[in-house]
Amino acid sequence: MEIHIVTDAAEGARVVADVFEKTLRDAGDTGAVLGLATGSSPVPAYTELIRRHREEGLSFATAQAFLLDEYVGLPAGHEQSYHHFIRDNFTAHIDIDDAAVVSPAGDAADPVAEAAAYDARIVAAGGVDLQILGIGSNGHIAFNEPSSSLGSRTRVVGLAQSTIADNARYFEEAADVPVRALSQGLGTIREARRIVLTASGEHKAEAVAHLVEGAISARWPASSLQLHPDVVVVVDESAASQL
Ligand code: GLP
């Protein structure tokens, strides 16, 4: 793992954006396959990429993107859906083709079949070149909560109480937070050729310590990234404080 301890959000955003920029340039006309994450952690990097698009001509025109996860029960148009979040915070502000930004259908009649079809769609696209990740305070990545199988594929998962509490800030009340999600599995995520994970704040420090130097265990799902040969971790000093 390549660990960057940064002094502020702006520096972290630049480091992450540099990794994206290299991936886009390396892919050239073939078009990069990007794996995008929601949550607050990647937003500064998305903002920096939007700036580079507007001011420096960085183009995403040939790229396609797959989201990590989606809440079960929320249609694409719902304000709190991840389909909506990624457009609002990133892809509506760059030149990527909107139809090339794909996420699991939260309102699919058969979520189990939707999960399998989504996993197959990523494989059929040739896999993800660069996956950006945040990390939950309990060590989850995407919605792979503690006890997720290290080889898991995209599937329907239940959310941990702590995740529901963490994400309640986006909803009017905690009772509105969906209790299930469609999430890429730990095995699916590790098939990305490169991974960049970003985290900030004291509340992520324990999870970051398990990610970087803990035992590989389903108890801390992010620790499974130690099995991947090309992971870049970008953390601020608070998130790095237990390393
Ligand atoms: C959610 C998402 C994760 C994200 C996590 C952390 O549960 N499913 O992909 O990493 O929240 O969110 P934040 O970055 O807002 O702390």
From TrEMBL:
SUPFAM superfamilies: NagB/RpiA/CoA transferase-like. Keywords: Carbohydrate metabolism, Hydrolase. CDD domains: GlcN6P_deaminase (cd01399). Pathway: Amino-sugar metabolism; N-acetylneuraminate degradation; D-fructose 6-phosphate from N-acetylneuraminate: step 5/5. Pfam families: Glucosamine_iso. Its EC number is 3.5.99.6. It catalyses: alpha-D-glucosamine 6-phosphate + H2O = beta-D-fructose 6-phosphate + NH4(+). Residues 9-226 form the Glucosamine/galactosamine-6-phosphate isomerase domain. Signal peptide: none annotated. One of its GO terms (molecular function) is glucosamine-6-phosphate deaminase activity. It is an enzyme of class 3 (hydrolase). The active site is at residues 69, 138, 140, 145. Catalyzes the reversible isomerization-deamination of glucosamine 6-phosphate (GlcN6P) to form fructose 6-phosphate (Fru6P) and ammonium ion. PANTHER family: GLUCOSAMINE-6-PHOSPHATE ISOMERASE (PTHR11280). Belongs to the glucosamine/galactosamine-6-phosphate isomerase family. NagB subfamily. This is Glucosamine-6-phosphate deaminase. It comes from Brachybacterium tyrofermentans. The gene is nagB.
